## 1
Amino acid sequence: MPCIRNTYTEVMKYNFNEIEAKWQKYWADNRTFKAANHSDKPKFYALDMFPYPSGAGLHVGHPLGYIASDIYARYKRHKGFNVLHPMGYDSFGLPAEQYAIQTGQHPALTTEANISRYREQLDKIGFSFDWTREVRTSDPSFYKWTQWIFIQLFNAWYDLDADKSRPVQELINIFESEGNVNVNAACDDDTQEFSADQWNKFSNKEQQKILLKYRLTYLADTEVNWCPALGTVLANDEIVNGVSERGGHPVVRKKMTQWSMRISAFAERLLEGLERVDWPEALKDIQRNWIGKSVGAQVSFKVKGHDAQIDVFTTRPDTIFGVSFMTLAPEHELVARITTEEQKKAVEDYVEATSRRSERERMADVKNISGVFTGAYAEHPFTGKDVPVWIGDYVLAGYGTGAVMAVPCGDQRDHDFANHFGLPIPNIFEGVDVSVEAFADKENTVIANSDFINGMGYKKATQCVIEELEKIGQGYGKINYRLRDAVFSRQRYWGEPFPVYYVDGMPQMIATEHLPIELPEVEKYLPTETGEPPLGNASQWAWDTETNTVVENDKIDHKKIFPLELNTMPGWAGSSWYFNRYMDAGNTKEFASKEALNYWQDVDLYIGGSEHATGHLLYSRFWQKFLYDLGLISVDEYARKLINQGMILGTSAFVYRLENSNTFVSANLKGDREVQPIHVDVNMVNASDELNLEAFKAWRPEFADAKFELEEGKYIVGREVEKMSKSKYNVVSPDDICSDYGADTLRMYEMFLGPLEQAKPWNTAGITGVHNFLKKLWKLYFDKEALCVTDNEPTADNLKTLHKTIKKVEEDIENFSFNTSVSTFMICVNELSAQKCHSRAILEPLVVLIAPYAPHIAEELWSQLGHQESVAYAAFPVFEEKHLVESTKEYPVSFNGKMRFTKELSLDLSKDQIEEAVLSDERTIKQLDGRTPKKVIVVPGKIVNIVG
RNA sequence: GCUCGAGUGGCGGAAUUGGUAGACGCGCUGGAUUCAAAAUCCAGUUCUUUCGGGAGUGUGGGUUCGAUUCCCACCUCGAGUACCA
């Protein structure tokens, strides 16, 4: 028979599992967090970077940012805002496809399963997401619009005069009436000039080819980063240290026909926009760096004996009289043309040798200087002197013009090259020795031996040289960007298909009303035997222009039925605009309605990792500006404020095996002995770093008969902070924490670990502090029997504690200093417990204060206090200064800046009265030990400092 | 190499515009309660000390009545980038 009394007291315990399940169900049933697209309230859009749903599930590091944004979103609801706080999945990607290759399981199935698992985990943490707006990038209803935006990009060009994107039809109109002579557009470098007449006479195919040179997404032969192991190309931001970011596979340069995005057209605006957003300075720096703006000049050198010129970009036109040779990249198109007979063999060998070297090898030996003389000479634009033309792999084909004017006295690489090959190093600097190293200090430059710019500084000389170059038609001022156009094709299956088919080799867009073009079924997810992307395996992947449907490949007749594009879009396609989709996620007619876009405008708070600095966060800004240019959205920077949450690191545990034995030595006994550290699962180690020996023996067969050297009967593991990962056995799952301590404890502990932006190690041992705090909070409301909240008038101390807390917590949330507000709550509850406060006037506002952090316990307490509605929309308590007013101050009294004692004095006292009171204190007399103070500093309300 | 950022107890970390360094929590020590344990509660916990004090926020200097905070130089660690002309 159950014991009634016992059950009754059980009820009054803080039963977090029951409470959390109850309120999670309540929120879901009542759609508590569904946001309306119309409201009298001010709007607030709190966004998290949506996750890729991996098979491993979430570990405690993942939700950190989500918890922070959730606290902020909940806080804003209390503050009377209409809050949009959505979540979704970036569900196209490599892992699901790699898994499909291994198992044959369709990526859609694994993705679906992973999403369910993620959702389950997220739900357990009690987020206030509006799930009615969920998006998945791999869902046809979503990627329909990704394809739609792609078509808009195809149908647009960049007008540099207007500095915005415009429809291609307008460009065609210009071509028809005046050719391209007056067009100032972002286009391919090899675009030739033509008149209206010429344009009108071009064949349709020729016209299409020319237009591709202008379109914002275009098909072109490009040098790409080919990763053989992954069987696909990679963008620059997907390569780290010369190997693929995912998997660390080698990457080689390869020329391929690929879709590219003309992001370079937006370089200046991407730079400028950074000035207007509240993003971390470090992140802005990374983007600025990546865009890599440099101001200088383009200079043309005629090649002697050839009808050719070498264009170079230089940031130091002022040093043009210091040129003693030129260097071309080995891949430079002029190399073959201008090389003399005598040098031909050497040059060809060198070009051949460098092309065979991988990117990584080239990077690895930057110290080795290599190059070959072409035998050709260029003509200095001012002096007319012969300038020998060399090739060398320190010049990159992909930057600037792929050629440099070498000024060995002013550039260290040129200096090294000149030294190595015995080339002259003419000095054009006043009072500087350049025999040992180059002089690159612009600020202190005084030009000499340089004709019309002698005696000038860097700035003036630069300006003069550019003017002179323009006069003789051999150069002009130019700004160069490091930012390259982004390759947009991937030779993969699990990505958005392009809405593109090919007629006579030219890409054609499928009309938008026929979107989405859904991914076809394939038997194998590997490239075809002929090396085509996986979509080449699809038997039904052709476009019928009459029925406007996807049909069988064998029907292709190149008259009415054409082959479809075999590449798919990269991972960053969907994430480049998803934040706009949340504003109107269900819309089937538009990517989002005008009303919704106008109402929500932009993201007020965006939280995510800084690893997306040069990928997602740059591409999405580019797409936003493009959509803005077309008038489709009303803001050109989509995220006002961005915070990078720091990574939560794992605390790995190690055992130490003696070399060539099966004996494990406790951490403090290893001494100088040769030991091999081995990761052990952190779940087998307790809070005191003590290893569970039985669990360890059972962990793996080879440890079954392990022997141990123990200290005081215990095996103590070594600890090290590392990235949290399966292979390091240091992963902690939020599910376990939720079931052992509850979601509210998890949320508060994650915040309590430290500042949001900072990387910090996870250590489950510390969680009891936060958990105990919640139990203590609970006890303010319940004694053993029942609710013990009274209607008694609060005391002055009660009010002081409450209002101190309101003030601090509000400031902390506004400053995203969530760790300190958790401390503040602890202090508050400690004080109220000591005061034995059970007054409703205090405890009710306290529930609202803590609700953003610990929403489940807050809902339960709120309802126990008699409220029928959710606490989620209760007004945030208002701080009242009057409760904090003090009449006295505990003054710290310092001697020469060192605090020695404190003395309580009335705050009404004047400076002189304070000084007198302190000087007459016996402790002062003792400290001074007979000396006379030289000076007494009194800051009323703050400190007293006695000097002498 | 260049560009950022960070160094505070055994640990995670606090400290408004320069004004009581180490809040809060973990861990540890002692105590209460308990048959015992868990749980809970109380006290202590930077180092050093001859118990008067003395030293102390990576190191060395500087500004100031007073510096974790501002300035200069250096050291260490982390991140980004990598021949960018």
## 2
Amino acid sequence: MFSAVESRRLYRQVADQIRLMIIRGELAVGQRLPAERELAEQLSVSRPTLREALIVLEAEGYINIRMGSGIYVTRRHAAEATGSEREPVEGPFELLQARAIIECAISEEAAKSARPEDIAVLDEALRAMSGVVEDARAVLVADRAFHTGIAAIVGNATLIRVTGEMFDMRMTPYFEKLASHFEGPVSWRSALEEHRAIRDAIAAGDAAGAKAAMRTHLTNSQKRFSESFGEEFSGEEGRCHTAGPNKGKAAT
Amino acid sequence: MFSAVESRRLYRQVADQIRLMIIRGELAVGQRLPAERELAEQLSVSRPTLREALIVLEAEGYINIRMGSGIYVTRRHAAEATGSEREPVEGPFELLQARAIIECAISEEAAKSARPEDIAVLDEALRAMSGVVEDARAVLVADRAFHTGIAAIVGNATLIRVTGEMFDMRMTPYFEKLASHFEGPVSWRSALEEHRAIRDAIAAGDAAGAKAAMRTHLTNSQKRFSESFGEEFSGEEGRCHTAGPNKGKAAT
DNA sequence: ACTGGTCAACTGGCCTGACCAATTAATCCG
DNA sequence: CGGATTAATTGGTCAGGCCAGTTGACCAGT
């Protein structure tokens, strides 16, 4: 296989260069870039080419172009604002943050309409989880059952599906590899206790309490994760596919 | 209010138009688009403008531009990159309820960390929407941009993706057929007003207000829907709390 | 008949230069 | 001093042109 050489289009080279400067922090967030005409001259390209590069960066969410005003740096990392999605999975911390926001709201809602039958479902999931804490695979099934069970209380299929899909994102090889470092009987038992707190709040019809308990749970999950991996990953810059059990630095 | 002059950037209108044609399947995947010069003439824009629109679509992954060869449609949905073609569509009311719960929480969070640049993005979406209220296609694009724009404020790619995916569920033939009965310039103008309220609350850093405004917006959407729904298909009852059988099943 | 090379038509990539429209700040007037 | 006006700045769009890569038809050599 002779790696098809892709002749880089000029506007892409320009976009790459500016994007790199933003990521490296050489262009501060909020800072205004030079005018298009000036920028084009500095980069030795024509204005249309420079504009095409800027449009790419705007589509990626790095900059914001305002008519008559100027070009401004909006964010430093690709938090993707426009659907130019990259890898199907986002970072672990990002995922947990999203789950915290969404599932907290769901728990709050669930507490308002929980019936005895719904609580029974949660109890079943808890019981199952307590019995398989040693089994890395089985415990995940029980964990998932608990979280989707909460969504099921609201009685909304979309919520159940979204909750399940977010949970399933950890079922990728990359996530499992990372998870194997911090998930263990000890951490699962902690998670189980937090689950019980959530269940109790929902059973009591305590919406605020359920929300808080869920937030505590997912925040702690995040904490357990970061502790096991140390600060090397705290930056959590993209898919560092650092194989190996030893926690090597994310060689990017 | 006075129908806001269409001051939208031209290349975005062009991009929106082509993107919608792709999403709707009017342009088949793999199909080659007309040459840039010809396309520009058909759309009554200059070639540079058309190019800028195409570059946006390429950055979003909808098309693939091969120099010397042509422009090809690569995929129909932005989310198709994951390869998972989802079909299990839930009911309209169910979807709106789920969005209400989830997007309320996101708005609440967004209000806590909104910066001027983020508000500028929302304003851009609002302005775009106000100019195309008459255009059933274009208004959807602006609507989507507003909702994902809020998620983008939090800076979490997962939230952006989930928000976008939920929105895109209305892009199915079934939903569009139903929507055609209740969506119109009048209802869109109401939605626009509600959007403005949400934007103002977020800009003011009012978390509770943002949450409430978003809930009002999606509740009203549901109301608008059900009113027209009732006229067309009178009799149909309480579909909004379906999912009865799901209530017992935790693991899906 | 098949292979390899040449060539012309087509298509995207890039440029120059200009004008329009929105924004912003300096300026003027009440 | 404050609001309205003007002028400079900046992004948005356009026109036309040239260059470079792609493609396929055509032709010479094996």
